Amino acid sequence: MSITKEAELIGMQQASEAVAYTLKEMRNYAQVGMTTKELDNYGAKILSDFGAKSAPFLTYKFPGWTCISVNNEFCHGIPSDKRILKEGDLINIDVSAELNGFWSDNGGSFVLGEDVNGHQKLIDASKQILYKAINNIKGGVRISDIGHLIETEAKKRGFKVIKDLTGHGIGKSLHEAPGEIANYRDRFNKTRFKKNSVVAIETFISTISTYTATLKDGWTLVGDKGGFMAQHEHTIVVTDGSPIILTEMNEIWN
User: Which of 44, 69, 216, 218 makes an SS bond possible with 92, Cβ 3.0 to 4.6 Å?
Assistant: First the structure.
């Protein structure tokens, strides 16, 4: 969507506060021995208290309030009573929701407890690259140039990017134009970021794979060649200068 009046900005700020606060609190709540379903239920309560509804459920009938992916799962992991969190797990939580007709999206990967499996370097890369990407976005910048920046920064750190997962426009629905904000230079994409537009910018930084494969559950994505992936995401408003980071409250950069 494009912000054309103050009421729209306020609406996006409120929806973004709901998802950002939920993500932050879920990350803080996660502990060894908990199931991903318990963690999802906790997030569901927070979103409900805001009056917000799960975006993946509303849009796709996803079987959970939030997406919780663990270790080799890249994204769209289904919360489960059978998945018990362990020390050193690489966890990704993606929280998107609708509130009063406005939609916002954010996500983040983190290590649970001590980094016994050595995932922190990947997570730090994803965070740092998202920060650099967002701070290079303003009206008129080519979307493909931001993709090139993300992939270049990933390669510098010894990582790859996932090419079939992308950021996207958002606002009046979960996915809007621009439909694909890729993590690499898509030379066919001539689109530029537009001032006042709302977009969800997300990194997909991986150790081995560059594409995903879907598990038998029909939702969960893993790497086509295996490995691990870290994702971090903010919903922003594009300006002529520094973007407005609507989901900054999630503290994924802290």
Answer: 69
